Records
---
Amino acid sequence: MTRGLFDTLLLVTHLLRHDLARTFEGTPLTEARVAVLWVLQTTGPSTQQQVAAALEVSARNVSALVDALEASGHVRRTPHPTDRRAVLLRLTEEATVLMRQMQAEHAAVEASLVDSVAPADREAFARGLDAVAARLGRLVAADGGFDVEERREGGGAAS
């Protein structure tokens, strides 16, 4: 029996989360804490408000994550250069090295995954995956989440 697209996406999500959990086993890092590190890696020093906005979570949620990351030596708080009330979050040198290592590992895994697709199919696969991700993003962002009628009416490549 052939697995449907949604079941395949769920399987991929499960496998990625399982791999992340295994990677961080025995460390103080979690998926949520690493998300904060990714934001700081890609945007540079940022306020907690900026990190919260990037992650689409509350500043209070980020505060707890940053407390843990500061305690584990991954993030440090520094005074904001122009706003005395704000602090900037910065990666420590240890976290910078870790994030570069993670980027290299992600690139290697990505190359391996791409290699599993026939060269002639790679461009179409990438376009299709981008289209599915974009569509799923729109469905999730819609008020009320997934709408059955919306899925039926607007779902195909022709729309």
Note: The chain has a mean pLDDT of 88.
---
Amino acid sequence: MSPRPPMSADDLPDAGDARPRPRKAPSAFRTISEVADELHIPQHVLRFWETKFPLVKPLKRGGGRRYYRPNDILLLRRISDLLYIQGYTIKGVQRLLREGGGVLADDIPPPSAAEREAEAREALLPLPGLEPMPPPMPRIREAPPPAERRAAEGEAARLRKVLSEVLIELEALRELLTAPPERHEGGRAGPGKP
């Protein structure tokens, strides 16, 4: 009988486990929760990346359960590094995959300022079928001239008066609606009502 290798932190039981969890072989397939824990990436992000990066194709078993191969995990780790550490956008990583024939080299430098600007400009292009957004309104940096300010204050006062009158009318209508019905001849609640 051969001696057992020493336990690592990964082999320690979780709070709810009664015994140590055996460590998987490096060539073993991993579930989405195992990959998410290993790469510190939420599961929904991994599923989203499957839609953006066609090379990320885990095996799917009954019920849609995903199993990631070791090569899938290496690709996901590299995509994560390019997106979160080096500052590439999803489109930038897609371009690198296209240019690299589906392979992401380990020595890819961070995007240059020109590449980031080009990606930012591309992101601002309108999508087909959508109206382009109007330019942002300029910020007012100084107070309006006194004449304009007085006109605005006068308009605000006029609108306050109109709103007060509307509020009085609404309160009167509410009172009419919540008041008990008046009794008419014969003790009935109203015409045609029992």
Note: The domain at 23-122 is CATH 1.10.1660.10 (Multidrug-efflux Transporter Regulator; Chain: A; Domain 2).
---
Amino acid sequence: MWTSMGSLWSYPSSHTVLMLGFENVGKTYLLYRLVSKKNKVLTPTIGFNAESFHKTTIFDVAGGFSNLWHTYYDNATALIYVVDGYDFSMQNENKKTLHKILKHDSLHSVPLLVCVNRKGQKEPIDELYFRAAFRLDFIKNRKWDIIGFDSSDGINEIRSWIRSNVEC
């Protein structure tokens, strides 16, 4: 059952994680891998998807609706920002968008996880590159981390991050 709480549609749970990022970066794929729906047929998200994970509800908000993301910020206890690790043409836009999101009062000090989708590439992400590209070292008002993932790697690390930073 959905209930309205401020500007956020709230699913009954103790914590709310927002998963944001532009279109086709793997947000829905990541959401369903986190909740072990490995064989779920994926279609482009219209609006949002929500799944429960332990005491947490994770909202995967459609990338095509970035102008409406702010309506989901209230009551968020963490932010996961997903990027395509191989679409270098979008990195500057990702940086600007991420820092705009982080300036919102409702998200002040919520923990941030940047998830870099390796899209099947076996080499690890260049964490230093993404730290610099997104100016993560300049973020001082919250805990943040960066984790690379693909179909076979990184999912357990992301689950652990949620457990330790959201469900503490």
Note: The chain has four helices and eight strands.
